[in-house]
Records
---
Amino acid sequence: MLYVVGIGAGSQDGMTIAAHQTIISSELIVGYTKYVELLKEYFPEKEYASTGMKQERERVEYALKEAGSKNVSLICSGDSQLYGMAGLAYELGENYPDTEIKVISGVSAAFSGGAVLGSPLTHDFAVISLSDLLTPMEKIQKRLECAAECDMVIVLYNPSSKSRADHLKNACDIILKHRSADTVCGYVRNIGRNGQESHILTLSELRDTPVDMFTTVYIGNSETKVIGGKMVTPRGYKNV
C-alpha cells in the first residue's frame, strides 16, 4: 500500500489524526529532504528515504516500488493534493497495477496560515503558486489577472526565491490594476514551525516586502478588513 500523506506544516500539533496514524502504521517514510527531517523528530524509529528539490518523479517512483512489498507513506507538506505528490502518484501508479494508492489529506498552508492571521478565507478565494518551474509565467499572470478582476481573495504560494526575487512585486503590480493600494493583505512565514512570524499590511506595502519560499501571502478582496488586529473577510452572515 502506498499512502500519500499530507503532514500539514510539519509540526505534530498541525497533523491530522489520520496522517499521524498512517505514519505510525507505515514501515517506510519517503519525502523531500526538509520534510523528512521534520518528521524524524517525532517518529525517530521509522525508516526514511528522501530526495531533494526537482527529484519528485524519482521520489514517487521509489515509493511505488517499495510499496509493492510494504506499507509506505509518501509525505507532502500541507495537503497531499495541493501542489503535492498525490496526482503524480496516480499518474506513475499506472505502471504498478498491484500497488494500491490511498490519499490522506492534510491541512494546507492556506488554512493554517489563514488561522494565524484571523479569517481571511471566509469567502471565495483562489490559490496560485508563483513558481514557474512547472507552469509558464504567462499562465500564472493570466490567473492572477482573472482572480484579481473578479474580486476573490488570493493566496500566493512560492512567492519568491533567490532566482525570482521579483515575482511577488510583479504579482502585486498585476493585482493593483484591479484593487486599491490600501487593500488589506497579510503573510505568514514558517507556519506552525520555529520562527513563525506574521504581518498584516496594505497591498502597496506588500509589493515591496521581501519574502521567501516558506512564506504564504494573502491578498484580501474589496471587503477584507482588520478587526481587532486580525485579517477578516466577511461573508455577510449578519446581513441575512
---
Amino acid sequence: MRPEELQESFAAALAARRLAGELSVPETVQMMLLQAAHQRVSDIHLTPEETILRMQWRIDGVLQTAAGFDREFGSRLVARLKVIAGLLTYRTDVPQEGRVAAEFSESEIRVSTFPTLYGEKAAVRLFGGNSERQMLEQLGLPAESERCLWQQLLATSGVLLITGPSSSGKTTTAYALIREILRQSAGARCVMTMEDPIESAIAGAAQSQVRPAAGFDLAAGLKSMMRQDPDVIMVGEIRDPATAEATFQAALTGHLVIATFHAGSAVEALTRLLEMGLEPYLVRSALNLVVSQRLLRRSCDCRHSREGISPARQVSPDKSLSTEGLSFGCNRCGGTGYLGRMALAECLDPRFPLVARSLLARSDSQALFAAAEQSGLVSLKELGERAIRTGETTREEFLRVFGGRLVLSDSRT
C-alpha cells in the first residue's frame, strides 16, 4: 500500500471510531495495533518531532508514514503503550523494554522506548505476522538451504549459527528449528533457551530471559544452564566474547546449540568469531553450520500481468522493464509491485577440508570465501541472481537490501 493510501486508511478508521463517540487514548492504541496487524506491519515507529508525533509502519521491510498526531496526544499514546507493556510511565529519561500483556493482545507484541530531543520514541514489534512461519518448511528458504537445516536437526552436539543483520529473520528461523526439534522428538529432548528478550513463547521449551540488573546475563545463564541437563540450547544472540566462549564450550560438552549472530555473510561470521578471541581449532571443532540470510520483498503477480499495469503514473518501480509511464496498480500490493517477502540463505559447513585449513591458518575473508566457493557454497549473490531471473524479486529490491556489498552481473530480466 502506498504511503498516501496508508494515511487515508488510518484516517478513515479514526473517523469511523469518532462517529461512535470521543476517541480515547486506549481506543486509539487498540485501533493502531489492529490496523497494523491487518496491514502486515512488522514494526510501528512513533517518533516525536518538534510539532507532531509521526507514526510509521514497516511493511515488508520498508518504512512508510501512516499518520501524524498532536505532540501532547502522541505522548499520551506512548504512555499508554508503556502501561500495557508493564513499563515505568514516570521514567522518560532512560530506555525501557517490555512485552504487551496477554489481556491487551492475543498476539506477541514487544515495546521499547528511547529518550530523544523532543520526547520518548516508541518502537513496537508485532510478531503476529510470523504465525504462518512457525515451522521449517514454512520459511520459504532455498531448497539447498532447507535441506542443510533438516540435516542439522539430527545432530546431538555442535553449534548451528544463524547470521544476518537486524530484521533478516534470524530469530524466526531459530524458533522454527526449535519447534521442529520438539515435534520430532515428541518431548524426548530437553530444550532450553537464553534470550534477550524472549520474543515468542514456545510450548515445550524452557525459556529464560536475561536480567542484567541481577547479574544474570547470557554468559552466566549458559553456564548455569549446563546443570539443568539440556539436550538442545538456543542462544538469543552472541554479542560478546564471553557469550561466544560459553556457547562453543556448551557445544563441545555434548549439546546442540542454536545461536543467532550479527554478520554480513557466512564467511564474515567465521572471521568475526576469530576477532572475538575464539581459537580457530575451537571454531572448527564445534561449529556445524553457518547460515546467513536476508529477507527481500517478493514480486507481486501484477508485475507479470499487463492487466496489473497502469499507464497513468510516472515511472515503473522496476526499471528493468525499461518502460516509462507505468505503475503497478494491483489492489493486493497497493501499487508497489511487491507482496510479502522471500528468504535468501547461504549455508557454509566449516568442516569442509579447504575451509577448515583456511580457518586454522587464520586466512583473511577473501581466502576463506575462495575456499568456501571451491567447497560448493551457493552464495547470497548467486541466490539473488537466481531469484531475479525467475522473477521472484527484482534487481532494485536486491540492491535496496544489500546496497553495494554484492555486485550483480549486468544481465537483467
